[in-house]
């Protein structure tokens, strides 16, 4: 699924998790960037190409516009532990500290993952309700359109073009909502207009496009319609 931008609430949870980890008794070594002299690590920045520390990550979160995605913050947090293990060695006591911090982090991050998932589900549900309401109250048929750009996936372009032509033949409310649901669950970007909904197929996973094609072919077969060839 394509990533969506982190919400302010999710970033607040990320900040709270970071602050809580910083208070842990063994976190002191992770609070600031490594000082090659004070920490007796003269070659640290030669060995570690992506240095991270909790203090820097906390400041980035406080800026509120540094981390676009929760996964970017999660990546930097995991770098803190991984860098320590890489530089000091798997069997060092510092590596043991890193693994304990990682364990605590993984336990805490479940909260933000749940919030992200629930928020995503709620947004999809809102979209369905909005379109469903449009279908109920519109004086004429609401349409579903598919925007098409050159895709990076290896899926045959002709297959996609046939699907778009076929999907235009499915005009019932149930079919439109089902196609929207399949697309949404596979990362689709939508543009909701007054009289139609536009799905950008370039944002849908290839597996999702295959699901859309299969559903459309099945509906054509059930209705004794001829799928475009």
Look at the structure and give the CATH class of the largest domain.
Mainly Alpha
Query: On the 0-100 scale, what is the average pLDDT?
Result: 79
Question: Which H/E pattern describes the elements?
Answer: HHHHHEHHEEH
Largest sheet descriptor: 3 strands, mixed
Query: Roughly what percent helix?
Result: 55-70%
As for the number of domains, it is 2
Corresponding CATH architecture of the largest domain? Up-down Bundle
Query: Total number of β-strand segments?
Result: 3
Report the sheet-strand fraction: 5-15%
Q: How large is the radius of gyration?
A: 24 Å
Tell me, briefly, the overall form: elongated
Question: Strand order, biggest sheet?
Answer: 1-3-2
Protein name: Bromodomain containing protein
Domain Bromo: 22-95
Keywords: Bromodomain
